[in-house]
Amino acid sequence: MSDLDFARSQMGMSLAFHIVFAVVGMGMPLLMAISEGLYLRTRSPVFLELSKRWAKGTAILFAVGAVSGTVLSFELGLLWPKFMEHAGPIIGMPFSLEGFAFFTEAIFLGVYLYGWKRVPPFWHWVAGVIVAVSGIFSGIFVVMANAWMNTPAGFELIEGRFVNIDPIRAMLNPAALHETLHMMLAAYVATGFMVAGVHAFFLLRHRESVFHRNACGIPLAVACVATPLQLLSGDLSARAVAKLQPAKLAAMEAHFETAKAAPLIVGGIPRPEKSRIDYALKIPYGLSLLVGHSAESEIIGLDKFPRDDWPNVRLVHWSFDIMVAAGFAMLAVAACAAWIWFRTRRLPDTTRVLWALVVSAPLGFIAIEVGWMVTELGRQPWIIYGIMRTGEAVTPMPGMVAPFALFTAVYVLLTVILVFLLRRQFLETAPTQINEPAHA
Fold this sequence. Notes:
single chain; mainly alpha; 10 strands; two-stranded antiparallel ribbon
C-alpha cells in the first residue's frame, strides 16, 4: 500500500468510527425528548426512568463522539493539507456553524443530565428538545460540507485558486438538500431500530417488563415513520446523483455502457477490466424507470468517462446493494410491526416480531456505513469532484503506515471501553419496582 492508500484508509476508518456516534447524537435526543414528554403528560414513572437511562447512554456516546470528531478535524489538516488550503475558506462556514450546534448540544445536554431536580419539569424537557434540534443541525452542517465536495459551488476557479467565494451558495450547493435529508432520516431509522432491538431482546427475556415494553415501543414508532420516508429520500438522492454525478450512479449500478431502456442490476460480480457484470439479476427497464420515469430514458454509462476517472466499481456496487437490501429488510419489519399495531393498538410483541427487531437492530448502522462508502468511494478519484484529485491533496510526508496503525489501536481501545460502559449503565435490565400498566 502507498502512503495515499494508508491516508485514505485512516480517514475512512476514522469516519466509519465517528459516524456511529454522530448518528446517535442525532437520533437519541429525539427519543429522550419523546419519553420525557410522555412522562409530563402521563406522570408515569416508567417514562421518567426511561428518559434518565437513555440520557446516561447518550452522554457516554456523546463524549466518545466528541473525541473521534476532534481527531477527524485534525486529520483533515494533517492528511489533506492541499485540500484544506483551497477548500478551507469555503467549507469553513458550515464547520463553524457545526461547532456552534455542537456546543449548544453539549451545554443543554449538561443541563438535561444535571437538572432533573434543579430545573422546572417543563423547561427541563425544553432543554432535551434543544439537544435534539442542535444535534440534527450539527449533522446537517457537516453533511453540507461533504455535499460541497460532491457538487462544488460558490466560487470561481482562476489560475488554480478559488476566488470570489460565496459561502452561502457553497453551503446550499446542488447536493445539499438530498444529502442532508437522507442523512437525517437515516439517523432516525438506525437509532430507532437499534434501540428497539436492544429492548426487544430484554423483552424476550422478561415478557412482563413494562420498562422494556415502553422502551421498545417509542423507538419502534420512530423507525416505522422514518423508514418509508427514508426510502423515498433514497429515490430522490439516486435521481439527483444521476444528474450531478453520473459516473457515481454508473458505478452504483455497474452500468458500463450508455443506453436507453437500461435494466436495474442487482448483485453480480462487476468486471471493470472487461466492462461487464456477471451473475447479476437484471430487471428490464428498471434503472431507466427509476431515474427518468420513462422506460426509454437514457442512462449514462462508465464508457462516457476516461478510465482514470472511474470509481472502484466493485466496492461501490456491492456497497450500494447492501444498503438497499438493508433498507428493504427494515421496511418489511416496520410494515409488519405497523400493521400489527394498527389491528391491535398495542405493541407488536409476538416472539417472531421481537426476534425480527433483534436481528434487524444493526441493519440501520450497516446501511449508513456502506452508504457512506458509496458516497465517498463513488466520488473517487476526486476529493473535490471534477476539480481536485485525491492524490493531489494528500500530505507529502512519508510513513503514513505509522499513524494508521496507531489510530487503529486507539479506536479498538475506545470500542472496548465503550462496550464496557454501555453494558453497565445503558443496557441493564430495568428496576423491578416499575410494574404499572404499559402505555406504549
